[in-house]
Amino acid sequence: KRMKEAAQLPPGTQFYYETPGFIKFTTPALQQALAMIERSPFTILASGAPSMPAALANFEIKIGDSVYRLGIGGLHSSEQRIRHIADALYSLRDVDVVSYYPKIISILRMFPHQIGEVFLTIYDGWIEVRIEYKDKGQKKKAATFKIKINGTFGKTGSKYSILYAPQMMIRTTITGQLSLLMLIEMLTRVDGISVVSANTDGVVIKCRRDLEPIRDAIVKRWEILTGFTTEANDYMALFSRDVNNYMAVKPAYTDKKGVFHPIEFKCKGAYADPGLMKNPTNGVCLDAVKAYVTDGVALEKTIRSCNDIRKFVTVRNVTGGAEWVKDTLSADTVAQKTAALLARGWSFEKSSGWYEPCGSDVPLTADGAIEQIRSEMKREHLGKAVRWYYGRGQKGHLAYVSNGNLVPRSEGARPCMELPKVLPPDIDYDWYVREARELLKDINCC
To answer: At how many degrees (to 10) do helices 166-188 and 28-38 cross?
Structure first.
């Protein structure tokens, strides 16, 4: 058989979003928004990716007290630095759609035409296996299939892939956003129920406790109308820097078998624990924040009592490799440059310039002398994958080998390429306390 080839769509090709029959709105604002989406053409760019129509690029929809933004990637609410606490009057519930985008593809029976319907047979099988592993608590296997499923969907936007199908990609993402807006509209029509956050495949609902049966009935009706399945988690609290950086606290509970489950956290972005998708970044600061918001433990107590060096390190991949500049020379004004040169033994003659101690007889300008000092500073090559902690009294930084630019947030870094058996004596605990305090401040808890 002839090998399948990627679909070919010339730049400038236009197409329109096709609305599934189950998408229905009752409020004029959302009805008008849907009409605008339906009449707005998507255009294939030279890269092969579809562009967002200008009318939709910065489009915002206000529902209740929240503002939602559409995008090719997904729906996003726009909260910043907020916190919500469940109490005697109100509950917080996170409602996520199970395998959302994959289920949209399955429900709408979409597939890349160059592959044919066999795509759905394979794809549906992956979805079922992933859900089965997830239900059994086999997290790593479930995560593996999640990567396969999401990666396959992602390739529908690449013109170099056999899976290339931009119309399918847009119909999937826009349907996902409109479906969530439909659920948000249904929920917020009831006084006492609000949606405090929404992101791609789920919403967080704040609900008066006496209205919880109504909330659950609305979600169930939405599932029946759309064909989706949701899963819910109750929160004790939700702390958000923004929709992509947050920390949610799940309450402790005892299951039907009498097994006690302690408090858990669902975190994203800057507040997420390291894993497949995130390198370690000052984990002790996250531990301190969690202990503070749940039990009121002082930040400094958590940080100073930690004996695990892995909790203090930052790991980063540096393109082209990094080197450790063991000292820095801050000299920008004439006075600073003069002081720096004199402190290093350089001499100055008004008629000619600056002379290096025990060095060349060729005079240099102040700028030239400063640059020479900087270039001669002791450096240590570290490689592309670097690990460091913040050391007390450290004046150096990490720099890109390729251009000498600062590796972000590496001022005061002490390389830690091999983990020591005991905690280094020069850990700058004050730096970590300040960092934890900033994390708290960003979620309105300081």
So the answer is: 180
Q: Could you tell me which residues come within 8 angstroms of residue 386 by beta carbon, excluding any fewer than 6 positions away?
A: 315, 316, 317, 318, 322, 398, 407, 415, 417
Tens of pLDDT along 149-165?
999 999 999 999 999 99
User: CA quadruple 96, 98, 101, 107: dihedral positive or negative?
Assistant: negative
In contact, 222 and 26? CB cutoff 8 Å:
no
Looking at the predicted structure, is the pLDDT value of residue 214 above 90?
yes
Distance CA 60, CA 57 (A): 9
Q: Which helix (H) or strand (E) holds 245?
A: strand 245-250
- For residue 157, the number of C-alpha atoms closer than 13 Å in the C-beta half-sphere is 18
What per-residue string of b and e applies to 339-351 under the rule 16 or more CB within 10 Å gives b? Answer: ebbeeeebeeeee
Distances (CA, A) of 221 to 19, 218, 229: 20, 5, 11
Amino acid occupying residue 258: G
What is the pLDDT of the chain when averaged over all its residues?
90
Task: Yes or no: say if 285 and 303 are a contact pair by the CB < 8 Å rule.
Answer: yes
Handedness of CA 420, 422, 428, 430 (dihedral sign): positive
Q: Give the DSSP per-residue string, 51-102.
A: EPPHHHHT-EEEETTEEEE--SS--EE---SEEEE--SSEEEEEEEETTHHH
Per DSSP, what are the bridge partners of residue 62?
67
**pLDDT for 303-329, tens place per residue?**
999 999 999 999 999 999 999 987 766
pLDDT average, residue stretch 291-314: 95
State both tokens at 106: 């399955």
Nearest Cα to 224, choosing from 179, 174, 190, 177?
179
Two structure tokens written together for 104: 């949209």
Mean predicted confidence (pLDDT) in 211-217: 98
The Cα–Cα gap between 37 and 215 comes to 29
